[in-house]
Write a structure and sequence with these properties.
This protein is an alpha/beta fold. It has five helices and five strands, in the order βαβαβαβαβα. Helices cover about 40% and strands about 15% of the residues. Bound molecules: flavin mononucleotide (FMN).
Length: about 180
């Protein structure tokens, strides 16, 4: 099984650290799982303009193909202006309908306001559902205060535990689908 993590932040490192933590916990839970982090900071994704995928640059093509090759995925976004990042939404705009059919799709987010923990529920879950992603019961919002200010390491044990629970739920659900 392959788990791909997408980090939708182009600015800082917190979102990719959170997404990577899910990948780490998934591998600890099931050593046979392959993982890959698609950090949008490392990709020059073209703006979607209605053209077919073949018309965009290699980074856009590669990111879409990595998503399509995954058995399950976790999406991470920084909260921007009470919504998901534009970079992540632009990547979604490149994907065909049904991309996540029979795939578990988890959600994590980072932000500086606890008031925005529901952004995932209202702005990201609806997009993943549109693509037919199967949603775990849990998701994890990580407040900036959970990070060490200098190293961006997650220092809140409750957050680390919630990330572990989410990773394990995602893998268990996907295993259930596989053996159905
Ligand atoms: C332009 C901008 C808008 C933001 N808007 C929000 C917001 O509406 N709610 C929130 O909780 N955090 C907001 N934030 C804070 C970021 O979500 C937060 O700092 C996040 O951890 C950044 O992730 P990164 O280190 O992966 O870039 C905003 C940050 C920026 C730069």
């Amino acid at each position: 099984m392959k788990l791909v993590g997408i980090s939708g932040a182009l600015a800082g490192d917190k979102t990719s650290i959170v997404v990577n933590q899910i990948l780490v916990h998934a591998r600890r839970f099931d050593a046979s799982i392959k993982t890959e982090l698609v950090d949008l900071k490392d990709y020059e994704i073209d703006f979607f303009n209605g053209a077919p995928l073949a018309d965009y640059n290699d980074d856009t093509w590669n990111a879409v193909k990595k998503i399509q090759s995954a058995d399950l995925l976790v999406f991470g976004t920084p909260i921007y202006q009470a919504s998901i990042s534009g970079a992540l939404k632009n990547l979604f705009d490149h994907l065909p309908e049904y991309t996540f059919k029979h795939k578990v799709t988890g959600m994590v987010a980072t932000g500086w306001s606890d008031k925005h923990f529901l952004v995932m529920e209202y702005h990201l879950r609806s997009v993943l559902s549109y693509f037919k992603g199967l949603m775990p019961t849990g998701n994890v919002f990580v407040h900036n205060g959970a990070f060490n200010m200098d190293s961006d390491e997650i220092v809140d044990d409750r957050v680390l535990e919630r990330l572990q629970v989410l990773a394990e739920e995602m893998v268990s659900l996907q295993q259930g689908i596989k053996h159905r």
